[in-house]
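Reviewer 2 asked us to include a model.

Predict the structure of this chain.
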Amino acid sequence: MRLGLYGGTFDPVHLGHLLLAEQCREQLNLDEVWFLPTGNPPHKQGSGISPAKARVEMLEIATAGHRGFIVNEMEVEREGTTFTVDTLQQLHDEDPDRALFFLIGADSLSDLPTWREPGRIVQLATVVAVNRGGGPYAEPGQIADAIGSEAAARIETLSMPGIEISSREIRRCVGDQKSIRYMTPRGVEAYIEQNKMYRE
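Predicted model (structure tokens):
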């Protein structure tokens, strides 16, 4: 099985997230893409992330009807700080024959050396850095000194149509009482409105 793993806070999930997942599924011939909403990410502690329940529900709304997209709650159910290397190790231990592909935006690639055990992350999964538009972004060779040339060689790059949408922008628009139509699926937009999210 070729399994794509896409982690993030998804606060909220938007069309850029979904397009990235679909482009990776198709271009890498993945059997499934698992969305892994983070529980307590080390790089966003104290930043007022929405409750996991709401983020999971918005993901389930956004991915409903796509047989290749799965929302997996293993990270939000884990106690303590959520580290990618722990998630990948658990999934590898559960099924060592499964090929894991860890999907990230290319803008996050330069941060990879600061993550816990980046070399181990690249051993456990092929890291796929996706250019979402804009840039320029770091290339795998540019972080070789930090994680080792052998590890950097296991990082793949992939391009998708540019789409400049961010969760931060959506939250700001809601707070400013501006439209978020066509930034996120209509069902997610309705969920945000019904639950009065991002108003403060």
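Residues 85 and 117 are 7 Å apart (CA to CA). Strands lie at 2-8, 32-37, 69-71, 99-105, 126-131, 155-159. We have added this to the supplementary material.
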